[in-house]
Amino acid sequence: MRRRDALRLTAPSTRDAFELGSPHGRAEGRPVSPSTDTSTFALRARWVIPVASPPIAGGVVTVRDGRILSVERNAVDRPASRTFDLGDAALLPGFVNAHTHLEFSDLAAPLGEPGMAICDWIPRVVAERRRPERDSDAAVRAGIQESVRSGVTAIGEIAQPNWSAPAIESLPLAVNVYLELIGTGPQRAHELCAMADQHLRRTAPPDARWTPGISPHAPYSVDRAVVERLRDMPLAMHIAESRDELELLATASGPMRDMLAALGAWREGTFGGLSPADYIRSIVADASTSGFATAASAKASRTSAPALVVHGNYLDAESLDVLAASQRPVFVVYCPRTHFFFRHEPYPLAELRRRRIAVAIGTDSRASNPDLSVLAELRFLAATFPDVPPAEVLRMGTLAGAAALGRSDECGSIEPGKAADLAAIRLDAADKLTPYEQVLHGVGDVLATIAAGRAVYDPLGLIAAEPIH
Ligand SMILES: [Zn+2]
Question: Residue-wise over 230-267: b if at least 16 C-beta within 10 A, else e?
Fold first, then answer.
């Protein structure tokens, strides 16, 4: 985010403080005190974990006008500020969910059964989308509330053309709204580019924190020509998600061909002799060689805008080489529990780390995951990959995620000048563990969430309560 934009986060209106997507005009738990919006206040916790620097025992984070003013080792006598003691808690940057589809947030459980083939699961998603009584707006709002309860303050959202702008524009959360582009054939390609162009033209209201991006859905569901025409845009694409996808690309056959035929979406001559690396090349190619869809999207382009390769469960050596050599910032978004839901082969995390390919974390949607908690994803990852240093695990769900959304100057760590996006986690693990381990190996829940200095989740009244001095 440019500096000018970042400064627009300050001083949200008190009216907005009561309107966090709740029909009753209240944030989850209890009403947010308007007085926390514009004044200076400080938060003390047993551990402050800034992520970009070592943990601080008994640290104090001071917030002014929605931004982090200071991070200190001990309480400083600061008569002008109110200090709230979070007690036996860790104060972290708000989590970044780099990939989700909030439209499915009303699902009580994933569609289908664990271990099912993705080609059996996708038709269920299609059927869910066609369910007549479906209220995707309400689902998005529910997903936002759930995210906030989970300590998430930044989201990479894959949105439908009718995405719920009112639900997102009024939020203090940082949201990248990647418009989903899906469908094949020349006529559809033309439509998709026009839709993308229109979406990228949208501008957010002054206090809003959303930015537009595009999401060509997957190699099997959108033409490569569309990807290439729009590749310089902020972009997220599902790639190398399943073995069936690789088989389709390479041989134009297999279960995914059958699925596409059953859905009426099979097009002869599209696949064969391809691999995920071809699609990754399409999105990481040097900007100077690419063509823009229109003048408007050229204006909206950011040649340094990160590209997200979502899932990457079956990235082969060639794909990994292309990713590692990319000039464009590119992130692989690992969705640990969705990966587990489908019982995929072991995730290539060691290969990604060995080649220094950046990894961010997503929950994916509730259609394949039990909830939208990035903290739960990180705890699952830490248990699955005990060799990965806990500090690195936490970084994937915070600072790396912020960088993946093009927001590392704005959020993802507790540093002076950044937005005051914070999550307080109850500490319940043994003291002898490091603070990172206490967060990742414990089961403590989210006590409070602050976005742009606003207590958007504070069921215990820790922050809105009377200050201790
Ligand atoms: Zn997804």
Answer: bbbbbbbbbbbbbbbbbbbbeebebbbbebbeeeeebe
Tokens 């695990």 appear where?
393
Give the Å distance between the CA of 238 and the centre of ligand 1. 6
User: If you measure from the C-alpha of residue 330 to the centroid of ligand 1, how many angstroms do you get, rounded to a whole number?
Assistant: 17
Q: Measure 1 CA to ligand 1 centroid, in angstroms.
A: 24
Centroid of ligand 1 to alpha carbon of 245 (angstroms): 14
Measured in Å, residue 241 CA sits from the centre of ligand 1 at 10
CATH number, domain with residue 208: 3.20.20.140
**Cα 463 to ligand 1 centroid, rounded to whole Å:** 34
343: left (phi over 0), alpha (psi -120 to 50) or beta: left
Q: Which residue range is the domain that position 26 belongs to?
A: 3-94+414-457
> How far, in Å, from the CA of 10 to the mean position of ligand 1?
32
Cα separation values, 9 from 64, 90, 190, 204, Å = 11, 25, 36, 12
Cα–ligand 1 centroid distance for 425 (angstroms): 27
Which residues are in the CB-under-5-Å shell of ion ligand 1? Answer: 364
Both 308 and 327 in a single domain? Answer: yes
CA of 239 to the centre of ligand 1 (A): 10
**Would residue 462 count as lying in a domain?**
no
375 and 430 together in one domain:
no
Q: What's the gap in Å between 285 CA and the centre of ligand 1?
A: 23
Q: Assess whether 212 and 174 both reside in one domain.
A: yes
Number of structural domains found in the chain = 2
Residue 468 counted as domain residue? no
Is 145 inside a domain boundary?
Answer: yes
Q: Are 10 and 50 spatial neighbours (Cβ–Cβ below 8 Å)?
A: no
CB 190 within 8 A of CB 252: no
Cα of 365 to ligand 1 centre, how many Å? 7
Per-residue pLDDT of the chain (469 residues; tens, 9 = 90+): 333 333 333 333 332 332 333 333 333 333 334 344 447 899 999 999 999 999 999 999 999 999 999 999 875 555 556 889 999 999 999 999 999 999 999 999 999 999 999 999 999 999 999 998 999 999 999 999 999 999 999 999 999 998 888 888 888 999 999 999 999 999 999 999 999 999 999 888 877 899 999 999 999 999 999 999 999 999 999 999 999 999 999 999 999 999 999 999 999 989 999 999 999 999 986 544 444 444 444 444 445 799 999 999 999 999 999 999 999 999 999 999 999 999 999 999 999 999 999 999 999 999 999 999 999 999 999 999 999 999 999 999 999 999 999 999 999 999 999 999 999 999 986 678 899 999 999 899 999 999 999 999 999 999 876 555 5
